[in-house]
Amino acid sequence: MSVAASTPSPTLRHDKSEKQFLDDEINAGKGDMLPLNVEEEISFSNKAVTHKSRYLSNGVKCFGVELSPDNFAVAMVYFVQGVLGLARLAVSFYLKDDLHLDPAETAVISGFSALPWLIKPLYGFISDSVPLFGYRRRSYLVLSGLLGALSWTLMATFVDSKYSAAFSILLGSLSVAFSDVVVDSMVVERARGESQSVSGSLQSLCWGSSAFGGIVSSYFSGSLVDAYGVRFVFGVTALLPLITSVVAVLVKEQRVLGPARGQLFPLGGPGFIESSKQNIIQLWDAVKQPNVFLPTLFIFLWQATPQSDSAMFFFTTNKLGFTPEFLGRVKLVTSVASLLGVGLYNGFLKKVALRKIFLVTTITGTALGMTQVLLVTGLNRKLGISDEWFAIGDSLILTVLGQASFMPVLVLAARLCPEGMEATLFATLMSVSNGGSVLGGLIGAGLTQVFGVTKDSFDNLATLIILCNLSSLLPLPLLGLLPQDNPDVDSNVSEDIEMKSN
């Protein structure tokens, strides 16, 4: 856990980092494919052929993925998720300085704002089953952008209490979560049947775009707070989600017509209820398979270990006197580090077995996370390292490691989803991961209260950090729940293994 990671985030991005988690599962495969009617099979087959022919070559590649209009739209939505970090420091300082909340209260509000990420299957179901104005993807991207603009406009104008702030942050989180589900489903459609390497390239494009967005906004996130105040930053941030609405027109999507292709059923109508029932049954049939359930359980436990992020933010600002401008520079470093983490995974780790990645990164991350004790106790200064340089170096190393360790979670989840319910199942898996991260944050808030760490008292902060870091090792005995995969098989063999593997 780094100084940058300790900044409470208005959204949960797989963020045991976004967190995140990120957000963040199952490499052995799909299990038995769920039955589809003949028309759906023909439709999805034609769709797959269309995708392949559409993306043959346009000459421009990023992370090994060709930038077709669809892929560019996906990358831009992830870019917006990253650039929304412009308001992250503003939110943290607003809760601390304007609303005068303590670390535990801040952690609770951050956890509350992450609730939209726990019901992502609902958005996936709506997107898959209820086309809006004839489209399953494009229309929802437009609406998500408008909702995000509204939430940050409220933060810039009317919000004046912790309850209204929590509501507005929740609204912004809902906007990002819904758009995330939509673009994830598009990624899953492309990743189905591909090898781990190809799927890894797709996820690298997504998370590389998000990291690049973070780099763009990082430095200004602190300097703008110093120069103009948090309200101004919220106003500027309100313009960014509109990019999502604009790039939605690039999504190449066949207009949905007729009940056989998922006509827009009135909510509560018999068609909608029947469609809902079928989707729930299909989702349950997929989730209850051992090769889906067991790895998902591990990911939940891996994410659910307690965190001391909010306490560290208060310590670095109230005790060490880090300014918003300096924390913006730290965030710039961590954004670059996040991009390096994506590059590390894409270049060296996407063909490494999952168990090895989780084992090595967890043990290494736990050991390096203990370096925060040096900052809290002041031992870094006795070693001749200033607080500022120590914080930057610590954040750089831990962010690279955290991002590289989270990428396999996304790749596994993407390769698992059956045709026809990409958004729903992928969202379910990621919601489980996000739920673990939220639980870890709430446990951390409780421990912060138990150890008596407040905005003015940090006597037991070192103990809290040690306990949170050691807890990260607890899920390692359960590594056997992950599949024993062979990532180097080609896509056809990989798909066959996925169909049969337990």
UniProtKB/TrEMBL annotation:
InterPro entries: BT1, FBT, MFS_trans_sf
Pfam families, A to Z: BT1
Subcellular location: Membrane
Keywords (A to Z) from UniProt: Membrane, Transmembrane, Transmembrane helix, Transport
Family recorded in the similarity comment: Belongs to the major facilitator superfamily. Folate-biopterin transporter (TC 2.A.71) family.
Domain of life: Eukaryota
Species the sequence originates in: Acer negundo (Box elder)
Main location: membrane
Name listed for the protein in its UniProt record: Biopterin transport-related protein BT1
UniProt topology in membrane: Multi-pass membrane protein
Sequence intervals crossing the membrane: 72-95, 138-159, 228-251, 357-377, 389-413, 425-449, 461-482
Entry GO terms, CC: membrane
